[in-house]
Amino acid sequence: MAPALKRFVLVVPTFLFACVADPPLPMNGADGESAVVTSEPAGANCATGGVKVQVGAKSPSYVCNGGASSDAGVSAGLSVTTEPAGTNCLRAGVRLQVGSDAPIFVCNGADGAGGATVTPEPAGTNCASGGVRVQAGSGAATFVCNGAPGDAGPPGESVSVTTEAAGTNCATGGVRVQVGSGMPTYVCSGAAGASPTVTAEPAGVNCVAGGLRVAVGTGTPRFVCNGVGGDAGLPGARSLVTLTTEFAGRNCEVGGTRLDTGVDTNGNGSLEPGEVTQTRYVCDGIGLGTGFVLTGVIDPATVFNSIERTYRYNNCTNSIWNRHADVIVSGQSCDASSGSRNGYWAHAPAASYPTNPNNDLARTYSRLVQIPATDTVVFTVGGNDASSRGAGDSSVSNIRVGTISRTTGLISNVQNAAFSDGYGGSCPLLSSSRTQLLCFDGATTVRFYRTTPGSPTLTATGTVTLGSGLPNTARCPINAGQWCMGGTFAYDGAYFYFSEFQGGNANRSYLVFSATGTPVGVQTATGPGNINGTYFDWSVGRYSTHDVFGVRVVGTEFGGTSGAAHAFSPVSTNHTLY
Predict the structure, then answer these.
(1) Strands (DSSP E) along 456-570, which ranges?
(2) What's the CA gap between 240 and 270, in Å, rounded?
(3) Using H for helix, E for strand and C for coil, what is the string for 187-233?
(4) Which of 47, 144, 331, 402 is most buried, judging by how many CB atoms fall within 10 Å of its CB?
(5) pLDDT of res. 344
(6) Nearest of 307, 325, 247, 252 to residue 491 by alpha carbon
(7) Using an 8 Å Cβ cutoff, are 527 and 281 in contact?
(8) How far apart are the C-alpha atoms of 460 and 159, rounded to whole Å?
(9) Closest by alpha carbon to 462, among 244, 140, 276, 284?
(10) What is the DSSP letter of 446?
(11) Spatial distance between the Cα atoms of 317 and 484, rounded to a whole number of angstroms
(12) How distant, in Å, are the alpha carbons of 153, 431, 501 from that of 150?
């Protein structure tokens, strides 16, 4: 019995393609559909199983195995393989092989056409007035053409503008506007306005205080009237001028007068600091070569540190150095064995001098200071016994004024001081400026007096109140049991300097106040010994100190090796000889 043949049923879908020539707008062709072949298990689609062929999204097709045979035979198998592009499939596909039967090919579709391109189309055969050319793939081009130009419109009318003279059309002239051949239009100038006249209007009905009359043509005149005077104002504030003494310093080298001007705004009759609007200085004249003036900036902490030379005297008071005679003068011996403290020394800076004073032994010379601009010396005479406790009494009755010679340095014309302000107190400490005597009253006030050559009159010029009181040890209050060794204080045009201990030992401290009395502080000089008295000598421009205990010896030493030490600094670099 011949073996039974297995049967295969090949279901091949049929694809229909419709072609439309010259579509309205060229478009890309549809993409070709790919075929997918998968195994199909036995079931409703293939009773004995097979393969499923899916082309794109269309309904699948099935290639089913043949039914089983009772006869032994050869089972024809199905194989599915990729078919490359070639004779069987132009664009590749799949190859179905059932046994030794002829193969069946499922081929991929052709690619769709390319996209459309749009380009300008010039006027010509395709478009008489130009347009655009639409090209889809390799198909025939389509043209979208511009419309033909319309007919020409009628010509427009011209406009002319000319000047129109005064006349029927324009009484005062103007311009004529002509559009084409139509009726002209006129834009006429306005009538001339009347000129205004302005005249003075006297005081009267129209203007109480007078004014101006403004008339325009024949119209009603207008009036611009002056204002009526107001009520009398309150009295104005008075201008005031105050005159005060200006001490020697930066504003006036040797002193003078300060003029403050301003308006008495609060009406109290006094020019107060806040009312001053202008300050001027009238400075005193000075003689050439009469001494030093302040020209630099002082450091009060260092003025007594440098010592150039030291002179020893057996005394308890200050010494001065006259520049013209180049003579040092020192007075009041402290040697009780001599039986008198009278007289003074006068010698050249490098010359030897006796142990005791050898000039004018008729009086005591304590607190000795000089005013170089007037060749005046001032001193006290109340220290001629051991109870004087140093410089002695300083009541005004004991103050003397004399003249120092520019040739010999000797003192003459000694007279009782005459205070112009009637001052009747005392001057425990004396000092000087280039032109004035300074008297510290033992409390808080420094009194200034101008001197006159050859005259005992001391003319009051002002006072400075110290911002704080001095300690008792610095005020030379000999009536309080304190010693007064030196009897002077220093004034350099910028600061006042007071020894803190006029009778103390081993102390070099001194109190500093500004030239206006403001406390600056306590300073301590460098070097050995004590500072019992301070002084600035305007004749030679040197600072000096007095040490009654004779320990402050620095630099070149004169007068032996014992006795009080009076030390002079180098010439100040902050003062200039005038």
Answers:
(1) 457-465, 490-491, 495-499, 509-514, 519-524, 533-537, 542-547, 556-558, 564-568
(2) 8
(3) EECCCCCCCEEEEEECCCCCCCCCEEEEEECCCCCEEEECCCCCCCC
(4) 331
(5) 93
(6) 247
(7) no
(8) 103
(9) 244
(10) E
(11) 8
(12) 9, 122, 126
User: Distance from first CA to last CA of the chain, Å, rounded?
Assistant: 164
Q: Identify the CA nearest to 428 among candidates 369, 367, 470, 480.
A: 367
- This model's pTM is above 0.70: no
Distance CA 431, CA 337 (A): 30
- Quick one: pLDDT at residue 94? 81
CA dist 533 and 526 (Å) reads 15
CATH 3.40.50 fits 297-577, yes or no: no
Chunked mean pLDDT (size 10), the chain, 578 residues: 40 37 45 72 86 80 63 54 88 81 80 72 90 81 83 76 88 82 82 75 88 80 80 76 75 74 89 88 64 91 96 89 96 61 91 90 92 95 63 88 96 97 94 95 94 95 94 75 82 96 84 96 94 95 93 88 90 91
DSSP-H helix ranges across 118-197: none
What pLDDT does residue 113 have?
54
- Looking at 406-555, which runs of residues are DSSP E strands? 411-416, 418-419, 429-432, 436-440, 445-450, 457-465, 490-491, 495-499, 509-514, 519-524, 533-537, 542-547
CB 279 within 8 A of CB 258: yes
- 37, 51 contact by CB (below 8 A): yes
Structure-derived torsion over alpha carbons of residues 333, 334, 339, 342, reported in degrees to the nearest 10 = 30
- Residue 532 CA to residue 334 CA, distance in Å, equals 15
Among 259, 233, 264, 232, CA closest to 245: 259
User: Please, where are the H alpha helices in 66-148?
Assistant: none
For residue 448 the two structure tokens come to 């200034």
CATH 2.120.10 maps onto the chain at 297-577
Angle CA(318)–CA(322)–CA(328) in degrees, nearest 5? 55
Q: Are 26 and 116 in contact (CB under 8 A)?
A: yes
Asked if residue 523 lies in contact with residue 531, where contact means CB atoms within 8 angstroms, the answer is no
Rounded to the nearest 10°, the torsion over CA 124, 128, 132, 138 is -60
